[in-house]
Design brief:
4 helices, mainly alpha, Arc Repressor Mutant, subunit A
């Protein structure tokens, strides 16, 4: 007579050990059919400002040079004056510079984000009390 498999006791669900994740708000400011600036483009502007290079900024953000260039080009087309100016490579290499318009756009966008997060902070804390954390 074959042995039957022993009955397994139901295992309790593992306790969640997730780390605190802040609320996410995706703010995008449009210009016609295009997005003039959003989180990704703001991050790209910061990286270009920090590195002085579109390719270095792309590497820092884990994106292709082509994607970074297309995002930068779209931003430049949305604003009255360019937000980034790039110079072609040569003996000294190329580079990119965030213009005063780009720095202003970045500063204002980060201020808008901060205001939005501050506006929902109390509601998010109340909501989190109902979550399994």
């Amino acid at each position: 007579m074959p042995k039957s498999a022993p009955k397994s006791a139901a295992k309790p669900a593992p306790k969640r050990t997730t780390t605190y994740q802040p609320a996410t708000i995706r703010i995008r400011i449009g210009a016609g059919e295009n997005i003039a600036i959003g989180q990704g483009k703001a991050d790209l502007l910061e990286a270009i400002h920090r590195t002085g290079s579109i390719s270095a900024a792309a590497r820092d953000l884990g994106m292709s040079y082509r994607k970074a260039w297309l995002l930068m080009d779209e931003m430049n087309q949305c604003f009255r004056t360019p937000v980034v100016v790039a110079s072609k490579g040569g003996p000294q290499g190329g580079g990119a510079e965030v213009t005063p318009m780009g720095l202003e756009a970045l500063t204002r966008f980060r201020e808008i984000q901060a205001k939005a997060f501050a506006a929902i902070d109390t509601d998010v804390k109340t909501f989190r009390k109902r979550l399994l954390l």
